[in-house]
Write a structure and sequence with these properties.
Number of helices: 28
Radius of gyration: 27 Å
Number of domains: 3
CATH class of the largest domain: Alpha Beta
Helix content: 40-55%
CATH superfamily of the largest domain: Glycogen Phosphorylase B
Strand order of the largest sheet: 3-2-1-4-5-6-7
Structural class: alpha/beta
Length: 678
């Protein structure tokens, strides 16, 4: 992946600096007052969460001082918060190219490429940047942190240790190496690296050493004493994050004890998720919260149980990524309160009695638990819910310990896809121990939204598959009324590309969903059926590449890219076949919604996708999720375009029946209540 995209290297999402109107060049280096003003402006916009406005103001300042790296870096941080990391990636790449020693920019590029396209692409990026291997300072830190991002710890350790053996830049290299080891949680190794510089007495501030190194060494010794006081010895010092997390979990589970049996109506429920962005898990959270709320207000039973409520939602944040509040209005219009626990001041959370037993080691927990645990525990101790429902792996990690510390009687861990080791770019070493320890406690249950996910989690955790409750997604009928300019947009496409049949999709345009392959298949189908046209609903980091790819294939006039749309039902009613080519999935809502609209589907067997249809009746499951063949995709789609109106009506009827019977909202709500009680 090249570092330079279409824009020249001297642009960072804004125009380059130009001379003043009188022809005189502006100063290339800001004075102290201007620098202080820029830092204050950045801090103010972060505090007020006015990221887009701050990005514009900082862009203007960076344009005035085009060679001042700091202003460009601050501008990109604000763009990142305003636009989201995938959309801001091109800007980070240009920043890394323009200022080659900006380690933050390059490491962010590596981290983002890792999450979007995998380890091989991230490794290739590092090798292209450093073709001769480890560089000298000041680039050595950038090189080491980049390889740390992709998990190449052995490479980093061997290189830095060799430099220390040669006594090359000993203080700087030792400080770098110790910092990386500390971040991994290996306190013993970090301390040993620093003590090699000059053995020092066992005190907190050896005066004979470099000041920075002395501070690092003192902090390491303090942390090791904290571990020792909790009965955690040398083994814990080599794997601090997992050891501290396990110790905190075990002690919190012991204090929580065995919750009393659930009797009578279920009381307050708090659901946790990272945000309310436009994702499938978020949509199901909203469907569940709204459905349970309406049922509770009606006073009727939900399955075999009753809910007094209320149902509430808590998120990490709604404004730290674009459209993070996409579903907020659905909740607030139903009278459901939404809290952002990240807004609880850290000092207030740390002083809460819920974390009294672990307050001194909170900073030793792995991220994001170090920042989230006290806030989650404080929020829950105040609300005192009967049930906490944690959605997705990331929230189980962030909020699981906090829920136990708050002594919540019932905790539901809701997983939506394959387990973390199946997605290495998102895996964390703490996950396996975290799930196993949580599930050892009474009143904590695991639920999955597909049989596939239930099997995989059970195998991964070494538990009986029967312990994983399967709660299929419940889908509400989508309205077909257009919103915004959708009807005008569609009318223009009808005029441009009148067609007998339309092939469509609704997806995030990212590497997992493979929109470029989808367009390749469209081109192949068009070669056989020139009357076809295609609609792609969605947005994402590959949006611009999709437009360019369609032009390169010569099919741009037959493809409509709608962007992100709130009126999915309106677009679905124009489709004749729905196609999804994901690498991995949980239980894709879009496949269920398409069938509920009477549309047959074609999908890879990713995750639980095959469970959403009757293969050969309401759609076709392709043989391969790893490398779908364009011939197979085209043949499957064309086979679902019968000329007979009777055949079309039969497929539509069967698709609706499967969607409504298997994925009923009422069934999902009933199964959810069972998880809350049984």
């Amino acid at each position: 992946m090249p570092l330079i995209h279409d824009e020249p290297a001297d642009t960072l999402g804004h125009r380059a600096s130009r001379p003043d109107g009188d022809g005189s060049a502006q100063p290339s280096h800001p004075d102290r007052g201007t620098r202080d003003m820029a830092e204050a402006m950045f801090a103010r916009h972060v505090r007020m969460r006015t990221f887009a406005q701050g990005a514009r103001e900082m862009d203007s300042l960076a344009t005035r001082f085009p060679t001042h790296e700091r202003f460009h870096l601050l501008a990109m941080r604000l763009h990142d918060r305003s636009e989201g990391r995938p959309a801001a990636l091109a800007g980070w790449m240009r920043l890394a190219e323009r200022f080659p020693h900006c380690g933050e920019a390059f490491v962010i590029v590596v981290r983002t490429v890792l999450r979007m396209t995998g380890r091989d692409a991230a490794r290739a990026l590092i090798k292209a940047r450093f073709p001769d291997g480890a560089p000298a300072l000041p680039y050595l830190g950038m090189w080491a942190r980049a390889w740390e991002e992709v998990g190449e710890h052995a490479r980093v350790d061997a290189t830095l240790s060799a430099l220390l053996e040669k006594r090359a830049m000993p203080v700087d290299v030792a400080s770098l190496h110790a910092g990386l080891l500390r971040r991994r949680g290996d306190l013993s190794a970090a301390q040993a690296v620093l003590e090699r510089l000059q053995p020092a007495p066992d005190d907190d501030a050896p005066a004979t050493q470099d000041g920075g190194v002395a501070d690092q060494l003192a902090a390491l010794r303090r942390d090791r004493r904290l571990l020792a006081r909790r009965g955690l010895g040398d083994t814990a010092a080599r794997n601090m994050h997992q050891a501290v997390l396990r110790d905190c979990l075990v002690s919190a589970i012991a204090r929580r004890g065995t919750p009393p049996a659930m009797r009578g109506p279920v009381g307050r429920v708090v659901m946790f998720n990272g945000s309310l962005g436009a994702g499938g898990a978020e949509r199901q959270l909203v469907n569940t919260a709204v459905g349970l709320t309406h049922a509770a207000r009606a006073g009727g039973a939900i399955g075999d149980y009753r809910l007094d409520g209320p149902v509430e939602v808590a998120c990490r944040a709604l404004d730290d990524r674009p459209h993070g509040d996409f579903f907020l209005s659905d909740l607030t219009s139903a009278g459901i309160s939404v809290d952002c626990y990240s807004q609880i001041p850290a000092d207030v959370a740390r002083s809460d009695t819920a974390v009294g037993g672990i307050r001194d080691v909170l900073h030793l927990l792995p991220a994001p638990l170090d920042a989230a645990t006290a806030r989650v525990a404080a929020l829950l101790r105040q609300r005192r819910p009967q049930v906490v429902h944690l959605w997705q792996d990331g929230m189980v990690l962030a909020a699981g310990l906090g829920a136990v510390l708050a002594a919540v009687p019932r905790i539901v861990l809701s997983v939506r896809s394959a387990p973390p080791p199946d997605r290495p770019e998102r895996d964390r070493p703490e996950y396996h121990m975290l799930y196993q320890t949580l599930l050892s406690a009474p009143g904590i249950v695991l639920a999955a939204n597909s049989c596939f996910a239930a099997r995989r989690y059970a195998t991964w955790l070494g538990i009986d598959e029967a312990r994983v409750r399967v709660i299929y997604n419940g889908v509400r009928p989508l309205g077909e009324t257009p919103r915004g300019d959708s009807s005008v947009f569609m009318a223009a496409f009808n005029a441009q590309a009148p067609a007998a049949r339309t092939i469509g999709t609704v997806m995030r345009l990212d590497d997992n969903k493979r929109p470029l392959l989808w367009l390749d298949c469209a081109a192949r189908m068009l070669a056989q059926r020139p009357d076809l046209r295609f609609i792609m609903v969605g947005d994402g980091p590959l949006a611009q590449q999709c437009h360019a790819h369609a032009r390169g294939l010569g099919i741009a006039d037959r493809v409509l890219f709608t962007g992100r749309r709130p009126d999915v039902g309106f677009w679905l009613r124009h489709f004749d076949v729905f196609v999804l080519l994901s690498r991995w999935e949980g239980l894709p809502n879009v496949l269920i919604e398409a069938q509920a609209a009477g549309i047959p589907v074609v999908t890879t067997p990713a995750g639980g996708a095959a469970e959403t249809l009757v293969d050969g009746v309401t759609g076709i499951v392709l043989p391969d999720a790893l490398a779908p063949d364009t011939h197979a995709v085209s043949a499957a789609v064309l086979s679902l375009l019968p000329e007979s109106a009777t055949s079309v009506a039969t497929i539509a009827r069967d698709a609706r029946r499967v969607a409504t019977e298997r994925f009923s909202l009422l069934t999902m709500l009933g199964k959810t209540m069972e998880a809350y009680v049984e």
